[in-house]
Sequence to fold (391 residues):
Amino acid sequence: MEFGSFGGQFLPDQILKAVKKVEEAYLKYKDDADFKQAYLDYLKDYVGRPSLLYEAKRTSGYFGGARLFFKREDLNHTGAHKINNVIGQALLAKRMGMKKLIAETGAGQHGVATATVAALLGMECEIHMGYVDVLKQSLNVYRMEMLGAKVVAVHEGLKTLKEAVDSALVAWANELDTSFYLIGSAVGPHPYPTMVRDFQKVIGEEIKTQLKIAEQCLPDYVIACVGGGSNAIGAFYDFIKDESVKLIGVEAAGLGLETKKHAATMTLGEVGVIHGMKTYVLKDEDGEISEVYSISAGLDYPGVGPEHSHLKATNRVRYESITDQEAIDAFMLTSKLEGIIPAIESAHALAYAYKLIPTLPKDQIVVVNLSGRGDKDVKQVARYLGHTLVD
Ligand SMILES: *Cc1c(COP(=O)(O)O)cnc(C)c1O
Fold:
């Protein structure tokens, strides 16, 4: 396995063959100078990298204790870190001669990022989405269609993300020679978790360089939220070898760890197989994969990337959890104190930081990866707080 006893390629034969082709192509291009330059050029000229490292002084002042910095992935084109990965995989697909990108999406964030890059590179795009999610996320559906993508509504089973994954895989299996399956987080069979991490590790590399220039030191803590784990592994990866840097991944505790309504895979999960990989998984009493819950659609996943499972097993990263209520409090506070409306996902990492910094000495430095902006979440937060917005 790629990550200690985690990872692998647990797949039916036909899909395995296609994944092996992706693996071959990734090995061929990952160190190719032209490929790397094309990826870096898009990050700079299209995404707007490097993203800023901003000191949140009013928030540090409010809590007392350590200094706090935000890594501003929310300022990227399309408003989150997801674009870094999608550009990398789409460029690989092009190098492989593929014409079409296939992906699934839950709330629509990964679908929109994929549709964006398909438009940018002149590729076809097909996004599979459960019918329940299509109804809930009509704005994102229309956005994807505006960008030129075809959105396939999936009517099987519970009509949500799990069925959308199955549907996307069937579509891929029917067009293996011309299409590329683009995964949105550091999950799935090898090589996807490695590849996605490599396309996201720029986040941590930039944090290191920016902090070195500003403060001539390493951070004491780097904190990021964990759904599938791509923004977290991106922020952590360059610091894994720096033993003094404490790394904390923050999962969704939903309505509470004592309820069944959470997505705290690392805190309460067990080892199992999901989506082609061996990793920590949340299972119910019958050993089936649990239905998970979080107020944040991006953290609502019953598995986690296999590299995180390894980092947990080896105690290099600590995993904590934050409830809906704590995340909403951090969402509101950050908006009011910094003029930055964070994604609800990112607000989980912020909420943990806000518990931590008052306990630390004033010369310590905590960096929170602000994985995305919260414009998409305004309506939902309003509803949570008991307000109804009229269109
Ligand atoms: C999708 C998303 C996440 C969760 O995905 P990871 O792969 O765990 O990073 C977190 N934050 C934002 C803003 C997202 O859009």
Notes: Residues 80, 82, 109, 185, 225-232, 298-299, 343, 345-346, 371-372 surround pyridoxal-5'-phosphate (CB under 6 Å).
